[in-house]
Design brief:
It is globular and about 40 Å long. It has one domain (33-162): OB fold (Dihydrolipoamide Acetyltransferase, E2P). It has helices at residues 2-25, 110-116, 121-134, and strands at 33-36, 43-47, 50-55, 71-84, 91-97, 103-107, 140-148, 154-162. It is α+β, with helices and mostly antiparallel strands. Strands 1-2-3-8-7-4-5-6 form an eight-stranded antiparallel beta sheet. The protein is built from three helices and eight strands, in the order αββββββααββ.
Length: 168
């Protein structure tokens, strides 16, 4: 009986150690990678529980007076100011200081799209917190802007990554 009890104790201990080793091998960040925001074409990338990149933040521009659909151009610079809607929560745009010192206002259409297309709360939370963190004043960003023709050209943020992010 003592031998059987000792063997059972060893088996239990071995199973506990094996279970513990497997738990340590499991990554603690289960939501990593690229995620689609349905029903939009917007995507975001999560790394260690933080959003580090966005794609397709703006909806395609409507046709301009000259027949153009809007140009997408790369941007790099430092965020020097932010603009919010009347609720003081919804980010509507930011001022980017370009490497040559010029400043440009860039609209953020993503927040409007989230509400307009009834996006689920979990995706809304990732997008809002990611944009809020990445577009903090003094952060350096890399991305693309879609220039839409209309009553004067205006810039819409299209993609975004932190200057030191691991975008793949």
């Amino acid at each position: 009986m003592k031998v059987l009890s000792a063997v059972a104790g060893l088996v239990f201990t071995a199973a506990a150690l094996l279970s513990s080793a497997r738990a340590q091998d499991t990554p603690p960040f289960l939501f990593e990678g690229w995620h689609q925001v349905a029903p939009l074409s917007m995507r975001f990338q999560v790394y260690h529980n933080r959003v580090i990149a966005f794609e397709n933040l703006s909806q395609p521009c409507g046709e301009g007076a000259d027949g153009s659909m809007g140009d997408v151009k790369p941007i790099t610079g430092r965020v020097v100011g932010r603009e919010f809607a009347q609720d003081q929560i919804t980010l509507t745009g930011f001022v980017l200081e370009l490497p040559d010192g010029e400043r440009q206002f860039i609209n953020v259409d993503a927040m409007i799209s989230l509400a307009e297309f009834s996006v689920d709360r979990a995706s809304q939370s990732w997008v809002i917190s990611g944009l809020d963190r990445m577009l903090n004043v003094n952060n350096v960003i890399v991305g693309t802007v879609q220039y839409c023709a209309g009553s004067g050209d205006f810039a819409m943020l299209n993609s975004l990554s932190s200057s030191g992010s691991l975008v793949q």
